[in-house]
Amino acid sequence: MQPNKPKMKAMWETVNKGWYIALIALLAIALSACGKTEKAPDGSKVIAVYKGGVVSEQEFTKFVNVDKYFNELFHSYYEQIDPEAFREQLLRSYISFKILGGRADEETVSATEKDVSERMEEFRQELESDEEAKEYWETKSAELGITLDDVKQYVLVQAGALNYVTSQVSDEKVKELYDQELKADPHAFTLATVRHVLVAFEPDEGEKRTNEKALAIAKEIKQMLESGQDFAEVAQKYSDDGGSKNNGGKYESVPVSNWEEPFKEAAVTLPIGKISDPVETVYGYHIIKVEERKEQTFEELRKELEQVLMDEIYMNFVNQELDGLIEKIDLPA
Fold first, then answer.
1. Residue extents of the structural domains in the chain
2. 293, 191 in Cβ contact below 8 A?
3. Residue 125 vs residues 41, 114, 122, 147, 285: alpha-carbon distances, Å
4. CATH class of domain segment(s) 190-295
5. What pLDDT was estimated at residue 38?
6. Which of 34, 39, 239, 305 could form a disulfide with 197 if both were Cys (CB 3.0 to 4.6 A apart)?
7. What is the pLDDT of residues 240-262, one digit of tens each?
8. Tens digits of per-residue pLDDT, 302-311?
9. How does DSSP assign 35-62, residue by residue?
10. Gap between the Cα atoms of 8 and 40, Å rounded
11. 3-class secondary structure, 50
12. How far apart are CA 289 and CA 296, in angstroms?
């Protein structure tokens, strides 16, 4: 059982989600550089130079160790695959955070400092109130050579970048994205609750079925349902969909865009409560009943769409600007 290590709430969860998706994408990028050894203001080696600044070995080591404290399993996994590439991409991510944070205006910088102070106070309070979390921090911080000030700097550099990117996402841009998605697909934001029974062409158990055999079984199942048999019980007994059969064949409030086109079409057109004819997909034949359909509003989706635009801004920066801004990387072997 893993110890109850303290969490960096809210701010950390937001920062972590977006930037780690980007970090995984960056693992495919190769970069090499060499040059004479330079000293940073803190006296340690300069391991990276970018337009507008440098990264010292000492500051980056602190960043990596705090990151490891919060994401130990993540580090263990990627360090086993290719530790040198993983460390280099962490450095590239760190540089990207510093550059983007440096673009923030005074208002955004002030808001970031306030946010970080609040999160650090929550973190300190958690360490004071949770004995197990306190013990974990004391053990791991000593092992990794990190302090609370290092945690603050770690959160600050990421929050600075996050808040800058957030400041570039206007309500107009979010609404424009919402309208574009709806124009491309009127059901882009439709949620549906459905029950279905799948008669698979290749069930997990038993022999493969021909199209004709699967269709015949699906028709029999439809007759059972139309005769009044309980849909949930029929699904539990006959469905080949392991993801829903134990839930009575039910998928609740799922974006219809997640489903294959024939299944999606049935989900958006069937009258509520009506049992469908067999619907063919690559998996087999489905007997479907729609229990509920709902169109998500702009206000309901605002935060999700903001995140989409934020991820897009960040990845555009990484793919189109970052390489041109990095002048040298010289990580120790």
1. 11-173+305-329, 190-295
2. yes
3. 33, 17, 5, 15, 55
4. alpha beta
5. 75
6. 239
7. 999 999 999 999 999 999 999 99
8. 999 999 999 9
9. ----B-TTSSBEEEEETTEEEEHHHHHH
10. 30
11. strand
12. 21
pTM: 0.78
pLDDT at 195 over 70: yes
Question: Three-class SS of residue 254?
Answer: strand
pLDDT of residue 82: 94
**Dihedral (C-alpha) 125, 127, 128, 130: value to the nearest 10 degrees?**
110
- In angstroms, the CA 272 to CA 97 distance is 49
Residue 328 has pLDDT above 70, yes or no: yes
Tokens, residue 302: 């605002």
Instruction: Supply 217's token pair.
Output: 């079984």
> Across-strand partners of 49?
54, 328
Per-residue burial over 113-125, b = 16 or more CB atoms within 10 Å of its CB, e = otherwise: eebbeebbebbee
Closest by Cα among 29, 18, 53, 28 to 158:
18
Q: Give the torsion sign (CA, 270, 275, 278, 282).
A: positive
Closest CA to 260 of 213, 214, 194, 305: 194
Helices 106-129 and 148-167 pack at an angle, to 10 degrees, of 140
What is the Cα–Cα distance from 159 to 317, expressed in whole angstroms? 16
Quick: pLDDT tens for 41-96.
888 899 999 999 999 999 999 999 999 999 999 999 999 999 999 999 999 999 99
Task: Tokens for 185, please give them.
Answer: 């697909």
How many angstroms separate the CA atoms of 234 and 227, rounded? 12
